[in-house]
Amino acid sequence: MASLSGRKVLVVEDETLVAMLVEDTLLDAGAAVVGPVATVSEALAALRNDKPDVAVLDLNLAGETSEPVADALKQMGIPFVVASGYGAAGLPPRHQDVPVLAKPYAPEDLTAALVRLPG
């Protein structure tokens, strides 16, 4: 399994079971997990309080778009991966360059995608 040792990863995911699986996967890969958080406001607070190295971002948070979080990550220079049931089609044009993991995805695919991010 790819290593994320020493990297802080923000997890933005509104489905509790998925968030728990993502957190376990990241911890197994050696990451320090920020969150998981399930709303835009929690994610923005986490960015202010505990700046991560990278992030994994669900685009649809219980009907709320996480685009403000994506914008903040980009503005702060924090690379991220989008995990979405919509695939790349759900990305706004300004974030077309962001790697996308189509749900459902294998845990090792998430780890590999995060390892490939700069930082």
Task: Provide a descriptive summary of the structure in words.
This protein is of the alpha/beta class and 119 residues long. It has a single domain, classed as 3-Layer(aba) Sandwich (Rossmann fold), CATH 3.40.50.2300. Helix content is 36%, strand content 24%. It contains four helices and seven strands, in the order βαβαβββαββα. The protein has helices spanning 16-28, 40-49, 67-76, 107-116, and strands at 8-12, 32-37, 54-58, 60-61, 64-65, 80-84, 100-102. It has a five-stranded parallel beta sheet with strand order 2-1-3-6-7, with helices on both faces. It has a two-stranded antiparallel ribbon with strand order 4-5. The longest helix is centred in the first third of the chain and has 13 residues, at 16-28. The radius of gyration is 13 Å and the shape is globular. It starts with 7 loop residues before the first strand and ends with a helix.
For the sheet with most strands, the description reads: 5 strands, parallel
The fourth-level CATH homologous superfamily is Response regulator
**Stretches where pLDDT falls below 50 for ≥5 residues?**
none
Output the CATH topology.
Rossmann fold
Oligomer: single chain
Radius of gyration: 13 Å
**CATH-defined architecture:** 3-Layer(aba) Sandwich
Q: How is the secondary structure organized here?
A:
Elements (H helix, E strand, L loop, with lengths): L7 E5 L3 H13 L3 E6 L2 H10 L4 E5 L1 E2 L2 E2 L1 H10 L3 E5 L15 E3 L4 H10 L3
Parallel strand pairs: 1-2, 1-3, 3-6, 6-7
Antiparallel strand pairs: 4-5
